[in-house]
Every structure is written in structure tokens, then in C-alpha cells.
Amino acid sequence: MRVERLNKDKVKIFMSYEDLTERGVARDDIWSDAPEIHELLNEMMDEVYDELGFEVFGSVAIEVYALPTQGVIVIITRGEDVSREQHAVYQVDVRLGQNNNIAFSFADFDYVIDAANNLKKYVQEKGSVYFYNGSYILLLKEGEFAADSYDSITAILSEYGTASSFTNEYILEYAKPIIEQDAIKVITEYF
After folding, report:
1. What is the pLDDT of residues 158-177, one digit of tens each?
2. Do 134 and 68 fall within a single domain?
3. Same domain, 94 and 136
4. CA 134, CA 99: separation in Å to the nearest integer?
């Protein structure tokens, strides 16, 4: 499990499917209202406090996004500041979403070039490349590739980079755009 502070009232948690299994939660259970999920959320909030000092009290919004092959991203947003004496009571607004986008991080642009050249069979054009925190991120949005080629694309990308846990919104807001449109086409034509 990885924890990251996005701003003073928002944190992001990435949990791989292995992390969920270790905690006794099946992949499909994340969408249920089972007691195990409530326990998992409480554990997450405790860990967020331990690692970042992010205290959860009052109204909290929890967004859960599934990354089909990597795991889940949980974004916790603290509501308006209420009395800290009420910290044991949470009002939780859970929004669930399925994220079928593909985002992979690469240590060097040469790896992006190699990956793009091997993706031509599945993605002729499309895609975007961003630079963030010393790494290049190749982003393929849902609809830019055939749904049945998802596993093949992620297998190719895994040879050159690692799956990114960043959401599209995070990448678009914080990463520097390198090639914003038709990245696969641009890279394969010029490199």
C-alpha cells in the first residue's frame, strides 16, 4: 500500500490486488458494503494518519477507482473542519468507478520509444506522453484502444516500464505534457 498527500485535505492510497488479498478482501468485494470493507477503510485511515499525520474527522468523501490489472486507488477527501471531538464519527460518501485507462511510467524516453514501436499492432495513433518527477508517463485513455487488447498492451508496456498508480486527473494537473495527442504515431514516425 502506498500513501501520498495530494493537498492539505486530500490523500491518495494505492493498493495492489495482492495488498487486498493479504488483508482478506477479494477483488470483487471492494464494491460491496461488507464489514471487511469498513474494516479496511478504517485501517487505511489509521495508516494515513501514521504515515502523513492526516487526521480524518467529520465528513469524508472516499472515491475508489479500479485499475483492472494493477489494483485500486482510493482518494480520501476531508470535509469542512468540524470539532475534532467528533473524530470517531465519519460521514462517508463513497463513489466507485472503473478506470480502464492505461498509464505506465518509464525511467528513460528510450523505453517509451521501444514500447511505442511494439504497440503499433494494437494502437496505431493515440496516446499522450507526460513528464513527472523524473519519469515519462505514457497514457492511453479508454476508447483509444480496443478493449480486448488491454491485456496485450499492458503486457508489452510491462516489459519497458511499470504501471503508474496516478489517475488521469492527477497526470493532467501535475505532469508536464511532452506529446499531448497521437503520441504512438508521433514517436513511431520520428524515432
Report:
1. 889 888 878 788 898 899 99
2. no
3. no
4. 25
Rg (CA), the chain: 18
Q: Residue 150 carries which side chain, given as an amino acid letter?
A: Y
Residues 108 and 94 placed together within one structural domain of the fold: no
Determine the pLDDT at residue 160: 92
The pLDDT tens digits for 52-93 are 888 877 777 777 777 766 788 888 888 765 444 444 444 444
Cβ contact 12:6 at 8 Å: yes
Nearest-angstrom CA–CA distance, 123 and 117: 10
| Residue 97 grid coordinates | 468507478
DSSP result, 56-105: --EEEEEEEEEETTTEEEEEEEE-S---GGGTT-EEEEEEEEE---EEEE
Distance CA 56, CA 48 (A): 9
6 and 71 in a single domain? The answer is: yes
The Cα 78–Cα 59 span in angstroms is: 6
> Residue for cell digits 495482492?
18
